[in-house]
Write a structure and sequence with these properties.
Layout: H1 2-14, H2 16-42, E1 53-57, E2 60-65, H3 74-91, E3 97-101, E4 105-110, E5 113-119, H4 120-125, H5 130-144, H6 154-173, H7 175-209, E6 216-218, E7 221-224, H8 226-257, H9 266-309, E8 314-316, E9 319-322, H10 324-357, H11 362-415, H12 429-448, H13 458-474, H14 476-491, E10 499-502, E11 505-512, E12 516-520, E13 526-530, H15 531-536, E14 539-541, E15 551-560, H16 565-577, E16 589-595, E17 599-608
Antiparallel strand pairs: 1-2, 3-4, 4-5, 6-7, 8-9, 10-11, 10-14, 11-12, 12-13, 15-17, 16-17
Helix pairs in contact: 1-2, 7-8, 8-9, 9-10, 10-11, 11-12
């Protein structure tokens, strides 16, 4: 070593490459020495071995006894151990030898019979550690107890050949030979089907994907570009091809597992089948993951084009409720949420399926399935139980709907006076229809209520009582106005467009409903009067006088005594007749209502058929 080192140093001046090799060699040597030193430091400090007494099995030394016990010397202890070994070997020349480790000791057993117990003191006396000593003894036991191989003679070879033929004939007559033949045909069938499936998908690829796809147009708008549509179809074909091949290979291997000798060990078959099922499941989940991701990415990339071509803002009159940008953001959020939901579902399904394949984790799989299946089963059972009630509700809704349509048609004919009823005015048609429709809807709701889900629950009853309490407290004035509106409607004191006076308000009726009546005054002011006040006040209808006399309008003037009364009468009557809207028959006339000290009060009366111009 020193000479090689000197030569390497000498050669360094001659060849720089050799010098570098020598330096590397020196560094490796130093590293080896350091590693040896570190290893030596890690090993326990053990004293040098003392003189021991050998223990033999089958004329091979297995271990030595160096120290004795409190009442035994090392020689007596070794002699006692050897006697126990000889006694076991006399009963069984090829016993089973093993080491049983404990805390601070090891026990040597032959055919499960304790032979010797060695402690850390014995290992220290042997110059080693207890684990190392146990490993050495186990190796020597395995060597000493291996049976000798018999000499192979010609007779033995012939016997083996005969045994082989007998076993082959027995194998050919058994079901395993049939299983082997079936397995070969399965392999051939797998190869043939794989080839045919590949040819089929290649045909589809050449037939459909090499052509130029046209755009998908709906109502003049391009929904999908032809190039993008071809990419989607190509992805789906690849997915179908891979899934078909995976299922085909899985079916062949799964059948082959149960055909051969592994069926003798049911647990092994279960675990091999579980591993195979897990591999196939992971492959299919990965394919579904990638395919769904590509499809959703395709939808995300198509959203801007759909926004320009198909999406329109949601508006109500001049108010934009949802703009195009907001609609696109909402759809993008929904697609991304769907992608996240699909991926989480795939992961959950993968974990559940794989845990269910293995016997030891099947309970966990059942628990994971129950977290999803129990709510789904409960929901499905609730839906199935609700179907008869839903059928009954649908019948009630249909009957109510068509009954309302018939009633609406009937009252519409009354309103247009195509159908007349004695004593029933046409302006009563719409209010009566509303009352009848409300009563029919309320009756239908009462019939439907017991068949609604949760109608018998305490929460539903509590909400119903609470709503009824609120309505009873806050709707007394509303109900009073509604009842007054019904009374006013059927009293017919005025109609839309009539000039009326309600209390101190004069105006034309512009609206009347179950709650309020609205008047437009001469100064174009809209006044809303609750129907309760309308019913409790006196009503003057200037438009109700539709007979030949018309409505008599009157006004008063005062003129002094110096003007003859006949002249005043003639002037007032002439002025009335020259006014538009004043009837000539009956003609205007004048009353003297007051004779005061300085003047006479004259009242001009004239008939008109246009009270709204008063």
């Amino acid at each position: 070593m020193i000479r090689k080192y000197k030569r390497s140093l000498t050669g360094q001046s001659r060849n720089s490459g050799r010098g570098r090799l020598g330096v590397k060699t020196l560094m490796l040597c130093l590293l080896f020495i350091c590693a040896s030193a570190l290893t030596a430091q890690v090993e326990e400090d053990v004293p040098p071995p003392a003189l021991g007494y050998g223990i033999q099995i089958q004329e091979q030394e297995v271990f030595q006894i160096y120290i004795g016990r409190a009442d035994q010397s090392a020689a007596d202890r070794a002699r006692y151990i050897q006697q126990r070994i000889d006694r076991v070997l006399a009963e069984n020349p090829q016993p089973d030898g093993r080491i049983s480790a404990g805390v601070g000791l090891i026990q040597i057993l032959l055919d499960n019979e304790p032979i010797a117990v060695l402690t850390t003191e014995d290992a220290a006396a042997a110059g080693t550690t207890l684990p190392t000593l146990a490993a050495q003894i186990q190796g020597r036991l395995d060597t000493a107890l291996v049976p000798a191989e018999p000499l192979v003679t010609s007779n033995t070879a012939e016997k083996r050949a005969e045994d082989f033929m007998d076993r082959f004939q027995e194998f050919s007559r058994s079901g395993q030979f049939t299983d082997a033949v079936i397995g070969i045909f399965l392999l051939l069938g797998l190869l043939v089907l794989t080839y045919l499936i590949s040819r089929f998908f290649n045909f589809l690829h050449d037939r459909f994907l090499t052509r130029q796809w046209s755009d998908v147009v709906i109502r003049g708008h391009i929904l999908f570009r032809g190039m993008m549509l071809g990419a989607v179809i190509r992805t789906l074909l690849k997915f179908a091809h891979l899934v078909t091949l995976i299922l085909l290979v899985y079916g062949a291997f799964n059948r082959a597992i149960y055909l051969f000798a592994l069926q003798a060990d049911g647990l092994a078959v279960q675990y091999i089948g579980a591993v195979l099922d897990s591999i196939v499941t992971v492959a299919i989940i990965i394919l579904v993951w990638k395919t769904s991701g590509r499809l959703l990415e395709f939808i995300i990339r198509s959203l801007p084009g759909w926004q320009e071509r198909l999406m329109k803002p949601l508006r109500f009159q001049e108010l934009t409720i949802i703009s195009n940008a907001q609609m696109q953001s909402a759809l993008l959020f929904l697609v991304r949420a769907m992608r996240l939901l699909v991926r989480l579902s795939l992961l959950y399904l993968l974990v559940t399926l794989i845990l269910g394949y293995f016997p030891l984790t099947r309970g966990w799989s059942n628990s994971l399935q129950s977290y999803i299946m129990l709510p789904l089963q409960a929901s499905f059972a609730a839906v199935v139980d609700f179907l008869p009630n839903l059928f009954f509700i649908a019948i009630i809704v249909l009957i109510t709907y068509y009954a309302m349509r018939f009633i609406r048609l009937f009252f519409r004919e009354i309103e247009t006076e195509r159908v007349t009823l004695p004593g029933f005015y046409s302006d009563w048609a719409q209010p009566t229809y509303r009352i009848a429709a409300f009563a029919m809807a309320a009756f239908s709701a009462v019939l439907i209520f017991p068949y609604l889900p949760g109608s018998g629950s305490e929460a539903f009853k509590g909400i119903s009582i609470f709503l009824g309490f609120l309505i009873s407290l806050g709707s007394s004035a509303v109900i009073a106005n509604i009842m007054a509106g019904l009374v006013v409607t059927y009293m017919r004191p005025f109609q839309i467009g009539d000039r009326v006076k309600i209390a101190d308000t004069i105006g034309d009726v512009v609206e009347k409903n179950l709650l309020v009546t609205r008047l437009r005054t001469i100064k174009n002011v809209i006044i809303t009067i609750p129907n309760g006040m309308v019913l409790s006040s006196h009503i003057i209808n200037y438009s109700a006088s539709n007979d030949a006399r018309g409505l008599i309008l009157h006004t008063a003037v005062t003129i002094g005594y110096d003007v003859p009364w006949r002249t005043v009468h003639n002037l007032l009557i002439a002025a009335a007749r020259n006014t538009n809207g004043i009837k000539t028959e009956p003609g205007p006339f004048v009353h003297q209502t007051e004779l005061s000290d300085f003047y006479v009060a004259y009242e001009l009366n004239a008939s008109t058929e246009e009270p709204n111009r008063m």
